[in-house]
Every structure is written in C-alpha cells, then in structure tokens.
Amino acid sequence: MSGQARLIRSLRKPTQPVAQAQIDRLGFYGSRARLRKAAMPFFDVQKRLGLDLDRWMTIQSAEQPHKIPGRCHAFEKEWIECAHGIGGIRAEKECKIEFDDFVECLLRQKTMKRLSAIKRQRDKLIKEGKYTPPPQHLGKEDPRP
Q1: pLDDT for 15-39, tens place per residue?
Q2: N or C: which end of the chain has fewer CB within 10 A?
Q3: Which family does the similarity line name (predicted)?
Q4: Are 56 and 63 in contact (CB under 8 A)?
C-alpha cells in the first residue's frame, strides 16, 4: 500500500477521543508528548476542606482570615488595579507612583528618615539649651494613682 493510500485510509478512520489519546500518551493532535514520570492530578485540598491557610499571604488585598485588612491594603489594591491587564513592562512605567506608595507603606523608609531627622534636631536643640522637653518625656512625671 502506498503512502497516499495509507493517508486516505487513516483519514476515513474515526479519531479516538481525547481522553484515550492522553492515555495512549498522545497529545491532542496525535503527536507523541513527553509526560512527566510522576504526573499526579492536582487537588486543592484546602478548598475541598474549607480551609484558608496560606492563600491570604500572597496578597494583602485577598480575603483575610479574621476580616482584618492589611496595613497597606489600600495602596496594594490601587497598584494591582492599575497594573492589571497591561503587562509587566507597561505597568513598571505607568503604575510607578502607585507602586512607590505601596513600597513606602510596607518599608516606611521615608517615614523613618523623617523621624530620625526630627530626633537629631530635637537633640541638637536640647544640647544648645533652646528646648526643654516636658517632664513626661524625661520620665520625671509624678506617678498616677
């Protein structure tokens, strides 16, 4: 039988179902696909048992275990809404303000820098004698009943 006759004969045969093709280690289009040796089905055990152990840790905007929103929930939500669906490269440029606000909320670098500058200025004024802190800030206040 020639190659052309085999092709015509194979086209007349009904194709096997997709499930059977996968069992026979064939891909959806009949090509042999390499399968992993330890391919096991994935079951979402947490969802089936009604547990929510680690899903809330991925993003703060997700539903939290005790319904208490994260500290930076609003900033993260703004950033995710801005970056959603536009791709990583565009999101870096177009959502930079939202991302910077979110990072500042998480790390508080500018806040700590500002507080240390205030403390340095306060210590400088105390050293020069231009400022005297109130007694409750020095620990010399009378104890309350």
Answers
A1: 555 445 444 554 444 445 444 444 4
A2: C
A3: Belongs to the complex I NDUFS5 subunit family.
A4: yes
